[in-house]
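Q: Convert this sequence to structure tokens.
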Amino acid sequence: MLSRDFDAWSEAASRVGHCANPIRLHGSSHTVDTRTGEVLGSFSSKDSPLGVLHVRCGNRRAAECPSCSRLYAADTFHLIRAGVTGGKGVPDHVSDNPLVFATLTAPSFGLVHGTRGGRKCRPFTPKGVSGVCEHGRPTVCHATHDDCDDLLGQPLCRDCYDYVGHIVWQWWAPELWRRFTINVRRALAKTLGVAESRLPDHLTLQYAKVAEYQLRGLIHFHALIRLDGPKTDDGFAPTPAGATAALLAHVVEQAVTAVSFDAPPLYEDDPARTLRFGAQVDVRPIKTSRRTDDPDRQLTAGQVAGYLAKYATKSAGDLVNGDNPHLRRLRATIAEVTDHIATDARGEGTPLREHPYALLGKWNRMLGFRGHFSTKSRRYSITLGRLRRARTRFQRRLSDASRQGKTLDVRDLDDLLADDFEQTTLVVGRWSYAGSGWDTEGDAELAKAAAARAREYAQWRQHTASIRHHRRAIRVGEKGNE
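A:
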């Protein structure tokens, strides 16, 4: 902080929102008026505070970059919320359509330690199981684990835990989700008494889902599932009478239990496996349900959007980057299976790329999960791309207003989200990659600290605004009583 170039670094860091690992670029660009061809301005990386252009890394993981993760979480929040309450190009009447919040978990591959809601971990043995496994380890645990206990998610016996089955299920989890969405549509068609091909003439299914790692290293899915009316060009049609959130919840529960997939064998003597979701399925209508962590409070659309945005940014963060005996065993098992598959392919003279698990080793760091952590159906709401384009357009409009000495009216910016937005300027440039990250670890730590302070300040402002809103509501209520 006492170095001569600290002010220049501080300016460069603020321009990228104190990104922890920015991309460094060399080059230049010119802003051209698309109507006249006039060059309105030029920019070179040499004009930057540190002589190189820094741009955000865009990493959504909070463990990797708190600043970009926070921006991604905000975009995800607005994307999810728009599909619940409307806005951002989504009509307000979409909030009247049936909506459920579903959590789909993974099955059990062995006994693991857990919090159990503040109760003892495993005081009783499962039916038909003795108190000691075949490897001489206890199958019970009388401890009461807190949230910081290192044993959480760890198997009671690692030799009994089915690590290979764990990896196979994780690899095919995206396929299970795909089949689940198909089953929901089939169940809806059966409930309505129409052919599955004619279902879009009556109802359409939209969803937004995120994946989160459980402590045992397995993925489970959180999803908002919405029921819209007949398929239209604009989408978001009102739901016909009779299609309720309770009906949708019942159909979703049926679809989850009906999902199955016969996984291909890993190698010649590998046993057959039929994969399913876990027995713990939570499906709740939004407008009538309660929060699972506080049964006395209503579950609101804003809370659900916040939950999913949080999961989307932390899903592959601390857990996957962590190190404990269970995760090390998982990664070692993936490496062993990958070597076995490669050896068999060489022995049989078959191309390894044709094997269904050929890329398993590339996903070792993700514990075998190869799917996207945040996905949505096409007509659920706005896309992340449109939100990012709107932000870019705003930044350009703000820059133009600053260059012309004008004040930008932020109350009239609805056209930023339009697909037919007319660009009056064009940026033409040539850039080359110069590297990633800050020059020193100290710079990176300062950037992370600044991003943390910005997050804390935003949380403080939100908390303060909530208190003011609560006090204002009390005053209004007191005046009404008078």
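The two ends are 59 Å apart (CA to CA).
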